[in-house]
Structure formats: C-alpha cells, structure tokens
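During the first year of the project, the team set up a workflow for recording each protein of interest as an amino acid sequence followed immediately by a discrete structure-token representation. This format lets reviewers and collaborators read both layers of information side by side without switching files. As required by the reporting guidelines, we include two representative entries from the current panel. The first entry is reproduced here exactly as it appears in our internal archive.
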Amino acid sequence: MNEGIIEIRPAQAMEMPQSLGALYDWKFAVVYALVILLLFWLLDEKRALRFGVLLILSLWINAFMSASGAPWGQAQPALYFWIPIAVWFVCGPLIEKYLAMGGIRFQNIAVALTALAMNGLYPQERAFPALFLGFCLGYTMMKQRFPFAAQGEINGKKPAPQILFVRCFIGLAGSALIFLLLGMILPGEGSILRDIPNWDQSSPFYDIGRFARFGLLGFWASAGAPRFFQRVGAAGNPA
C-alpha cells in the first residue's frame, strides 16, 4: 500500500493546487477553464470575463475552506462553487456599475487589492490569486489599448470558421507553452533544473515563480492572445 502511495505522488506534483482534494475537482476546473477560454476568444469576451472571475473565485474559496477544515470542504466543492455565483446574481450589476464609474485605474486597483487579499488569507495557494490578477489586468489593458471583440467583423463579415480555428490554435498553443516551458524552468518538481540546490519545491523562489507562471497564463488569455490575433489578422473590429 505504501509503495502505491509513493508511486502516485510524482504524478500529482504537476504544480496543481493539492488543497483542492480530489483529482476530480481539478479536472472540473480544467474543463471549465477551457470552455471559458474558447468563449473569450470565439464568442463573447465580456461574458467569458465574468465566468472566468467566478470560476477562479469559487476554486479559491473551495481551496481555502478545505485547508481551514470547514464543513464539507473536501466532500462538497460544488457548495463553494455556487457561492460567488449567488453573490454575483445579487450584487453583480451594482459591482459592475461602480467599477465602470471608477475608470480603468480604479478597476486595476480593485483587482490588485482583491488578489492581495486572496494571497494574504491563503498564502499557501498562489495559483488562483495570480490567475485572477493576470486575467483581469490583461482584460483592462486589452480594452484600453487594443480592443478585441470575439464576434467583431473582419472585412465586413463575421469571423469565418478557419479564423476561429486559428484563434483556438494560437490561444491554446500559447497557454501550453507558458505552462510547460515555465514549469520546466522555474523552481518545482517538474523543473529540468531541479537537481540544482534549492531549485525544487523547497526553493525560496518557488512561490514567486508559481505566481508569475499562473499570472502570465491569465494575462495571455485576456490580452496576449487577443493581441496576437490582431497581429495575424484573426481579430474582429469592436462594434
């Protein structure tokens, strides 16, 4: 039995939040993240932003509750998944109204403070605050500097299927490159440099590297990929 446990652990050490508990929870998160990314790049970037923020917050709440020993923390992650959604249905329009009134600078400050609070309340898990920060800051930068509309017209027409395929390929390839390449270089069990002293998960730079890695993933999704789409002529013009 002990040998089986030892064999399983390396497969689980893929820089994924162990506090989520069951592997099913992480598969659930990956599937929904892919759906949100494709929604952002192909159909409706505004709704994808909302869904993405709600997903990140719900996963963070689940991880936080699980680590704190709260009731149902491990057994019922769906309970915590619906908490941000319920709050959003009640307060969402009001939150969006005040964020819009405050302008870009106010929005960025609110995002940074939220990520800081997430990090402070549960410093053992860096991925979700980093994703939240990168995804939201990337979105505000994109809207301000190079507006992207998933269903915007290209040469007077809606995006053709081949254009959508190009977006999928570029977006997912970029995400995989960031996740895998940085995972190979930054401190951690998956790093090709792990034999260097203090370059495994015990490295003092592990948390910083993890935060940077997931922050870049979020930023790529909402800003990097749309900018790349524009560069190759695969982005539509906002209405």
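The second entry, processed by the same pipeline in the following quarter, appears below.
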Amino acid sequence: MKVLVLDDSRSVRQQVRGILEPQGFTVVEGGDGTEGLSLLAQHKDVGLIVCDLNMPRINGLAFVDFARSRPDFAAIPVLLLTGEARPELMERARRAGAKAFLVKPFTSDTLLSAVRKVSLGRSSTMPPTSGPAGSLPPGSAPGSVPGGGRAPR
C-alpha cells in the first residue's frame, strides 16, 4: 500500500518511512498540506495518509477538510500525528474526518498498530502516553482506550 506522509519535520517523516517501508509499505513524503495536495494529485494510488496536525501553509485539519471535500480523495483514511492530546483537537480531527489521532512521540509498534487498524477501516486513537490502539466513539473521553492497557514507556 502507498502511504502519503505529511509532516514539516524531516526527522518525523524519516522515522515514519523507516517504520513503514520494512513492512512493505511504499512511502511518499511531503512537508505540508500544500505539498500533500499536489502529491495526492500525482499519486492516485495512495491508500493511507499519515499527516501532522501542525504544519505551515495548510495544517492537518485544513488538509483533511479539503481531502474529504474531494470525491477522489474522500475515501482515503487519514491518521493525524500531533504533539498535543487536547480533547478539543481530537474532537475537531474526528469531525473533520480523520480516522485516527496518534500522539508524538510514538513507538514503531504503536504506529504500525494504528496504521493497520486505520487501513482496515477501524478508527483508532492513542492516549497521550502511547498505549494500544483502540476506537474512540463519539463523545468518549480522549485518552481513554476501550479495552484499557498501556504500553511500556
């Protein structure tokens, strides 16, 4: 599967690439939402978008809003990355159409688990302490993971 990775941090893009490519994913990278829109137009076979929330020019929420408004991009699942785990951001991301919200820093296992769940069509949200992926039903408390459990720090 081809994954579009958007983050203004080159090191985060390299980290995501380094985790996904050995698992058989093809990664295309961009530094912000503007680049992401251009890359989506060029790569019609993108199956997943991993997108930072806070980027210059077009941020992650605006990017998701735009992607959801276009019939050719609307069905591509989006996993948002952020350094913040504020409840209002998680709710805005869900309303915008993001399928998952992963808090940085994340581990390889956490990213892979979220990518697999999102690419299989199940929502996943990570608590601020980076635990196992789980769905976040509308109105539930951010940071809670159905089924509980925490990954070692």
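For the second entry, the following points were noted during internal review. The longest helix spans residues 108-119. The chain has one domain: 2-125. Both points are flagged for discussion at the upcoming steering committee meeting.
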